[in-house]
Amino acid sequence: MHVVAQLAVSLDGVASGFDVDLARFYALASLWQEEVTLIGADTILAQESDVLAAPRRGPRPEGPLLAVVDSRARVHSWTSLRDLGYWSDVLALYADQTPARPPDSTTRELVTGYDQVDLAEVLDVLDRRGVHTVRVDSSGALLRACLELELIDELALLVHPVLVGSGERWYDTRRLNLHHVGTEVFKDGVLWMRYCVAI
């Protein structure tokens, strides 16, 4: 299985506080044609009002599966997420100690870990189910956890020619063994830099 993460960052290594061309970001991300999009509950909750207000086009059969790490069962917009028209279905990733869900819930679940979702086990289960490519859609806690656990195979940085000047850096890359595999330069000065992450 190949696990890839792409994120937009500033020149000073911050992943927020500047404008990102989301159309380009997701056009580039689509090149991996992932079978599973792995995302954290915080990201979903930050966009929940937009998700609930968006048109419901129904599941996209050829789309990837959306897998959401939700150890505390905070996400409730599963049907809306499924019907956005981006994903084929949704999968709630829970831990043993995740609060009880409604008994009539129709959302697919995978339970791993005790008080937090065991990300390594999640990927192992997906691998055994025949998944070849997982894209981690995060620039925060989920991505950092995946990097700490050495679960990321490829990292793509969309580097923007801006200095944010404040904010938390997304990760200390000195802790990673990165091998450069390519760079593309866009007319507006944005760089798309891809690296293999060696263990």
UniProtKB/TrEMBL annotation:
<dbReference type="GO" id="GO:0009231">
    <property type="term" value="P:riboflavin biosynthetic process"/>
</dbReference>
<comment type="pathway">
    <text>Cofactor biosynthesis; riboflavin biosynthesis.</text>
</comment>
<dbReference type="Pfam" id="PF01872">
    <property type="entry name" value="RibD_C"/>
</dbReference>
<dbReference type="InterPro" id="IPR002734">
    <property type="entry name" value="RibDG_C"/>
</dbReference>
<keyword id="KW-0560">Oxidoreductase</keyword>
<dbReference type="GO" id="GO:0008703">
    <property type="term" value="F:5-amino-6-(5-phosphoribosylamino)uracil reductase activity"/>
</dbReference>
<feature type="domain" description="Bacterial bifunctional deaminase-reductase C-terminal">
    <location>
        <begin position="2"/>
        <end position="190"/>
    </location>
</feature>
<protein>
    <submittedName>
        <fullName>Pyrimidine reductase</fullName>
    </submittedName>
</protein>
<keyword id="KW-0521">NADP</keyword>
<dbReference type="InterPro" id="IPR024072">
    <property type="entry name" value="DHFR-like_dom_sf"/>
</dbReference>
<dbReference type="InterPro" id="IPR050765">
    <property type="entry name" value="Riboflavin_Biosynth_HTPR"/>
</dbReference>
